[in-house]
Write the structure tokens for this entry.
Amino acid sequence: MAKQPPFRFPHLDGGFFVFVQREENEMAMKRRDFMKGAAAVGAASVVGTPHLWFKNAGLAYAGQGEIKVGVLFSLTGTTGIIEESLNKATILAIEEINDAGGINGMRIVPVVEDPASDPATFAAKARKLVLGDKCVSVFGSYTSASRKAVLPVFEKRNNLYWYPTLYEGRECSKNVIYTGAVPNQQQDEFIPWLVKNFGKKFYLIGSNYIYPKEENNYCKKLLEKLGAEVVNEEYVPLGHSEFSSVINKIKSTQPNVIFSTVVGDSVVALHRQYRAAGLDPEKMPMASLTTSENEVAAMGGDAAAGHFTSAPYFMVHKSPENERFVEAYKARWGADKVTHFVSEPSYFQVYLFKQAVEKLAPSDITPPNIREAVKGEEMTAPQGRVRIERENLHTWLWPKIAVAKSDGQFEVLQDSKEWVQPVPYAAYPDQVCRESGLEKV
């Protein structure tokens, strides 16, 4: 009998959760069969059969000198343009750790899957990594749609997902370590800077899922405080490549700033069509939270030049740690490759994983124990000193504002004087994420 596909239902953020009731029922039957068998063994032992004892059957996360982890980034599809670099940064960190002796002598074994930029496939691959491969943690996702799709897997199985991407906040999970920026870490300095330097009329353009909508929600709150206005707000499908109507609206509304939360290969199309239309970044720049060196390399420096990005990391950042990271990345993946503000946390979060696991005896290496061990953990990352906030499992980061140059790199114009605390519910001041869970205040 052919296996039926999972049932799906639409989700508000443009992704969807995947229901696998049939599979769960099958697993429950297998567990019942196992328990019956174990009971039979136990009964047999009374009459002389050797006793068999299973400790944490099926949950042996570390053994034979190895620790298995999942690597779940898209290598194909619309966000493959950015996610393949997250895969590379993750693999680089794993290889470095293994070459240096591993974690307490144990090698990290990456199990790599390609979810092909599809939330349903993300969920299916996550189940495989957690249930089939028994990975103790999984590093993955770029979009919030894909993170939302895998979240039920990790929460139900009490496993641990390491998410390196800037995101919209408004999430409080004990099963996700968030190492990318949340809105307050990208916008609190950026929006006032844009208003001061360019003016108060903003055009908001984003991809059609939860991240751009929530970032824009926070942006509008900041603009309102500054007496600024939104002249238009528009969303396009993921993978969208035809922006002529958007360009025409921009020409007619004449904003001072085009605030972009477009993602993936759509970023390349938007920038190229902006330039082809003869628009001038000196008068009407695009200000982005999502345009990195990776997208700039794909579109060409001329299409990116003069536009702005706010992020905790840029490849040109000066620090010994960053120089080592960039050199190692190029040596491993090619001299033409670039690092950026999502590949950098993809890299350093593997080292935070290492630091947490180092605290544990091999028999104690489980997802819940790793989560407890990583709380408050610090390290000097390429961007600067970072720390996992105990209360909400998000990361203290270093916001920066930079302008793209025609050579494909950025020039950092403003660097935060202090690392900035993550406030995942900054747009919702009546809610706060604590160790005990989401609370109303």
